[in-house]
Write a structure and sequence with these properties.
mainly alpha, elongated
């Protein structure tokens, strides 16, 4: 087996792996779990804002840059 044939087999292996990953990621079985993971960031955001007290405008102090 020469080097060109080995490169051909390797290219076919990489192509087959790519096709398998694409089919796996777009399958209908995985859609629900991917949607749950995609929306999980919004659920965490809602929990964080509910736990933290929102500062009032009078509590926010403007920072000044005295180094100029």
């Amino acid at each position: 087996m020469d080097y060109g044939t080995l490169r051909g087999f390797f290219a076919l292996l990489i192509l087959a792996l790519f096709i398998i990953i694409v089919v796996w990621s777009y399958s209908k079985k995985r859609k629900d779990s991917f949607d749950d993971v995609a929306n999980s960031i919004f659920e965490e955001d809602k929990k964080d804002t509910a736990d933290k007290k929102q500062p009032l405008d009078k509590d926010i102090k403007q920072e000044t840059n005295n180094n100029v």
